[in-house]
């Protein structure tokens, strides 16, 4: 984006959102700014996209869908404006770290990884119910707030992206949480992580081959999600499967407790969103404190 096309520091958008600091995204099409809502006196994130108009239509549609989701793990979307030369989405500003920042320093214990990705899957399922895809699921788009929330940033809803691709990206995110590397079989921009190790045929190594002692059931599920020859579950079904595994630390559940993503499973965990309340059942991730220190 050139300075002639988009606003700069100090500019006021929609007579309400003052841009304070450019914090990311200098690829010519998308920028992230920290701003201030001068009417409500609160910090906001402003995601600028250039150009606006028809090119920004998927982004605007996704913003509307995200604003209507009712899950704690999706950032609150406050506004979406298309000014022609550029368009922007205004969402809550999350103080904390991205998942990428955490994984650049250390991996997550399997139980924490399962809970985290299950929360992300909740948000993705809500988007899919609203008729849009996220299209940018990777460690940089998942935020870990200072008040213990797992937050998924606003969706991109890129043309051609499918719900199946979103679910595979959830599998790649789980793999990254466990191993600290990103499997290239799931394309993503700027993950900030090294590529996952592969065998002599170029296949991504199963997670338990990278992390000895990892429960085989967990490694198998992760491998299945990355396998393009298999049809993955829906995001809602996957959330249930992940929480079932989290209860056993990633090991195979007892037969009477086992759940399957192949059957019709009702998520049944959605309620009114409250941005100030941590997701039900989430344990504190000790790594957040380590990163913030």
Automatic annotation (TrEMBL):
Protein kinase domain span: 1-293
Domain of life of the organism encoding this protein: Bacteria
Alphabetized GO MF terms: ATP binding; protein kinase activity
Keyword tags: Kinase, Transferase
Pfam entry (one): Pkinase
Matching SUPFAM superfamilies: Protein kinase-like (PK-like)
UniProt xrefs under InterPro entries: Kinase-like_dom_sf, Prot_kinase_dom
Presence of the UniProt keyword Protein transport in the record: no
Protein's name in the database: Protein kinase
Originating species: Glycomyces artemisiae
